[in-house]
Amino acid sequence: VTRGSTSQRQSKKKQRRAERESIYNSMDESKEYNLSLEVVTDGEPVRSLCLIKEESSTEDEYSIVTGSQGGLLSCLSIPSCTTSIQPGGDGTRHPHNITSLLSVESGGYVSGCKDGVIRIFDGAHSFSGELKGHENAVTSLAWLPLSCSDDSSPDKELLLSGSWDGTARVWSLSQMECMAVLGGHENTVSVVGLPPLDGSHGSIGRVATASAGIAQGNSIVDHKVRIWHISPSAGSYQAKLVHTVANDHSGPIRGIAFDPHTNHLLTCSNDATVKIRDLQGNCLTTLNYPSDGSEPMLLSLTALHNAKVVAAAEDGHAVVWDLVHHTHRLIPHPSTVWTVLALPKGDFATACHDGYTRIFTLDATRTAPTQQIQQFQKASADSKAKSNSGPTPEEIAKLPKWEMNALTQGRSEGQVQIFNKNNKAIAAQWSDVSKTWIEVGEVMGTNQNAGQIDGVSYDHVFPIEIDVPGGGVTSLQIGYNNGENPFVVAQKFIDDHMLDQNYLSEIADYIQKRAGADGNTPTLGMTDAADAAPTPMDISTNTSTTPTYQHLPFTTYRSFENGTEPKVFNKIINKCCEFYDQETASTTITKDHLTTTLQTLSDTLCATNRYHATSIPNSQLTFISKLISQWNIQHVFPILDISRLIALHPDASKMENQYIWESIVSSTIEKCQQMKLDPTSVQGTTAAVAIPMMSMRLFTNCFRGGGGSLKAVSSHLDKILDCAELFAISENKNVRLSVATLILNASSYIKSSSAGTTSSTADHILSIVGTIIGSGLYESEATVRVLVALGTLLLADDSIKVKAKSLHMSSMVDHAGSQHGEKAKALAGEIQLILA
Hints:
alpha+beta, 4-stranded antiparallel sheet, 32% helix
């Protein structure tokens, strides 16, 4: 196991820590994930992972427990990079594949195995018990958080398990019993716990399950997402199905996860998509695998705290989607990636079929040595090249005959086997339900038209040009692999680029003519008789077709999340205690009460990986609201900083707490208005910069938080925009970035709000955008955010476009775009198209 230089890493850590300790940091979002560490344990394919953190450990200290296909547990310790195979001894070996792992907050972990048994291990890796009840492999494990106010149960969390037997189960570890069975699923079940509901009849737990569907002929149908309520009942628990969403994926659902930062549900599928859902299971957004010609099965997924989603793909990739910038990246691996695991500081780990566990990071100081990264990239490229070359005739002759496939029993659901069918290599997938092989397609190589799009290789890459409104031309490329259905490829191209459906036949015909003779679908070894430099297909956009844009609109919310490191938070607490001694209005609050409450909040807010299972009592929220209201304007900014972080906690910002957030937002607005009425009150003090920055970031995060904080900030939007206008031409770049991000979130809210907004609010934003662009003060990143905000707002309503034209914003946008890089230039071009 190797990592970057220790001395260099320590030096960089000191520098990074110093930067984090400043509460005026801005976010750096320009980095990409790189390999940090790779380690092989028992050499068997790694099938499952879980994260172990001791209570006394720092953010840099943790362990990863791995489960292999051979049934062995291993432990990788970070940052020492030491590994231990079977750390609990010989008695901990599983009889079959370890299909799932889950850490226990009090120490230890739980495993799911192909033999249907759930095993429990303590913090020393020793076996301490087992749970039996499933009749097939346990493939999914999760925790079901219960309300902290529910004293009727000895468990603050219940264990959830999903299995190939078509059931999910709810377990009590304190009683070592199954408390409820969630039946009726279509084969393999994935599970995840959601935040509890506090109702008039006590706490209600919420569970989301996803099923793989059932086989009908050569298709898989009836894959469903279900939402369940789990409530106490006579010493046990009762499960009630409350909502079902069926068949919105086009293939079996393989994984499910909960994102506590956005309060969204996530699912991934054999159809190569991830769907972002609300807590009723309804699809909000679909993330497509970034390739026009390849649709691998996505086997698992996880959400990272930095607004990224990572999925594991059976074709040997980890896929990272950035939900803020609407970008994606494929990280090739030498073999199938079975699962992904979120780690501290935005890192993640992958479990690969080649026997390696790998960690990826955005932090340049923690990347692996260049030589190791190059070796990993070469191994991945060599594996890809081998798979692209296709089997030789001699290799095909040695494959099992397709006609005899009934004699070849598959080992597990989804296993892929290559057969010889009419002297061609074809891939088939095993259906454990129907006990048959389902033909997937022919195993192909490449030809002279081979190429890449966004780093993905295709047998054919063809140019397509599209006329756009205003006389411009957009050049696109379509990728096609031999043996694919041209109409399926054409349809996906239309969907990805949001083109007119009437182009389907035209594009499919074009593919057929370019890829094979006489319009026939090409097969392995067919030569292409067309010119080496083909004429691009030209598509003239119908005037009735709604134009689409690469960067617009912005459909989510940005946030400021830095500050949850314990050392940084302790500095904020110390600053609050220092200001307490100078406060005259805090006589009703003791210093012990202040310190205890803030330290409790620190413990909760710094444990970001446990947001789904923690809560912030109303008494603490009310305490914070009281401090904002009562404290002097020179002293209140560290409380605003803490409020900014609280807004991102899903329990604290839930709808039931709207009335408290109304108070927090109103008091913060009053502090901003006080600066306007009496600028001398903060002149020459830290508060002169801190109040504008922290108030803007608090309002920004309220959009990203739960229903309560969102409702509060949206109901005061006009007054908040008054504050933004006041600080828009600040001399401090961090304040400017904060204003730009608030304007971006406000525009996104207006665009997505079903209730609409008043014309005066939109006019107000246009006025602020005009002030910002006209000032020439804003740095490139802040300018990009302002341009995205403007473009998003313009797409909300035609009347806003009319107003923008009357303000002659077109020329202002052109100038801003030309001064701040390629992305700003591209955004300016899209805004011009909107205004045309």
